[in-house]
Design a protein that fits this description.
By secondary structure, the protein is of the alpha+beta class. Helices cover about 35% and strands about 25% of the residues. It has twelve helices and 14 strands. The protein has helices spanning about 25-30, 30-35, 45-50, 60-75, 100-110, 125-140, 155-165, 175-180, 235-260, 275-285, 295-300, 305-315; strands at about 1-5, 5-15, 20, 50-55, 85-90, 115-120, 145-155, 185-195, 205-215, 220-225, 230-235, 265-270, 325-330, 335-344. Strands 1-9-14-13-12 form a five-stranded mixed sheet. Strand 13 (about 325-330) and strand 14 form a beta hairpin.
Length: about 350
């Protein structure tokens, strides 16, 4: 459990990949498999609610995506590159094993020599963990301003998945572990964090939150590199059940710690997976579905980018305004969970 008294999100921005892939486009590429297994067209969007997702061009590095979002966040901020004390790259995707992807972002943005840098990765929870780590460093006085960035690119994963599905002698049962891969998208997000007293206007503040883990479920969704390509297999049904169970336990502790109830938040901003996960989570926590603000319909699952991107879109569209309260509910494979209370 943790509490913050001064942690403000001074600016928040996202970068949108230029290529749009609809679920119909993906199914068209899988037509031979659909025909052989007699799978009905339209099932991908029907089962997930995802109409489309976005991708960067081939060869686009996570650092380039993160830097693009970082430039936008700094352009919105009162602080310049020389004012940032720490940059953290929070994505699943990285340029390489070494050095830290944050180093490339640091260089691209022209951050100062005094500015620390490192990567922080924890599946889809990376950016939320970044908020927590940055908050502790800011409130303890170790740093004053932190730039969080995350650039995800699911294109290599989905390209490999399409090849595996088309080249293999698959059955309806054997394609199931690959289905979640087809929901993945791409995007980037960045935020400048500082003490609330340093901001010039009312900014969203992270009040506090709680975390939870269920490592018995660590094998339900596993991603790795295979011959230079990304590979991931997911037991979607078991992962959903375990995720909702962990979320329920974490939500109970969140309410105890913050004093919030299901009626408190004006909006609930979740990690974006799809329609089935959305409804199961809200039902499991006893939350009204009309409090939800979603982006999965047009972006799919963008890993660590999904939740902060959805928060940015909620503010951009007026779904969250000054005075609003939002519960940020993050869940990542592992299983890991974090729930944060935000006041705008």
């Amino acid at each position: 459990m943790f509490t913050f008294s001064q942690l403000a999100i001074e600016s928040l921005a996202y970068a949108e990949p230029p290529e749009v892939w609809t679920s119909d486009d993906i199914e068209a590429r899988l037509a031979p498999l659909y025909e052989r297994l007699k799978l009905p067209a339209g099932r991908l969007e029907l089962m997930t609610g995802i109409r489309e997702r976005r991708f960067w061009p081939l060869g686009h590095r996570p650092s380039a995506a993160s830097a693009e979002a970082g430039k936008k966040a700094l352009a919105q901020s009162k602080f310049g590159p020389g004012d940032i004390d720490l940059v953290i790259h929070c994505a699943v995707c990285r340029d390489r094993l070494e050095p830290a992807t944050a180093a490339a972002v640091h260089h691209e943005l022209g951050l100062g020599q005094h500015c620390q840098l490192f990567d922080l990765s924890n599946a889809c929870l990376g950016f939320i963990n970044g908020l927590m780590v940055a908050g502790g460093l800011i409130e303890s006085g170790q740093v004053r301003r932190v730039l969080l960035v995350s650039g995800e690119n699911g294109r290599p994963l989905i390209e490999r998945t399409l090849r595996v599905l088309l080249e293999g002698d698959h059955t309806r049962k054997s394609v199931k572990p690959y289905f979640a891969n087809l929901t993945i998208g791409a995007g980037a997000v960045a935020a400048v964090l500082c003490r609330a007293e340093e901001t010039d206007a009312p900014c969203p503040r992270i009040i506090g939150g709680v975390t939870g883990s269920d490592s018995t479920a660590n094998q339900l969704c596993q991603g790795d590199s295979a011959g230079g390509e990304l590979d991931m297999q997911t037991d979607s049904e078991a992962l959903l059940a375990a995720g909702v169970n962990l979320a329920q336990q974490t939500w109970t502790r969140f309410q105890d710690h913050t004093g919030w109830t299901t009626d408190t938040p004006d909006r609930v901003i979740c990690h974006q997976v799809g329609r089935r996960h959305q409804r199961a989570l809200f039902e499991g926590l006893g939350l009204a579905l009309d409090k939800d603000f979603s982006t999965f319909e047009e972006w799919g699952n963008v890993g660590s980018v999904s939740l902060p991107l959805t928060l940015a879109k909620a503010r951009e569209t007026g779904a969250l305004t000054t005075g609003s309260k939002a519960a940020l509910l993050g869940i990542g494979s592992g299983l890991v969970c974090a729930m944060l209370a935000l006041e705008c």
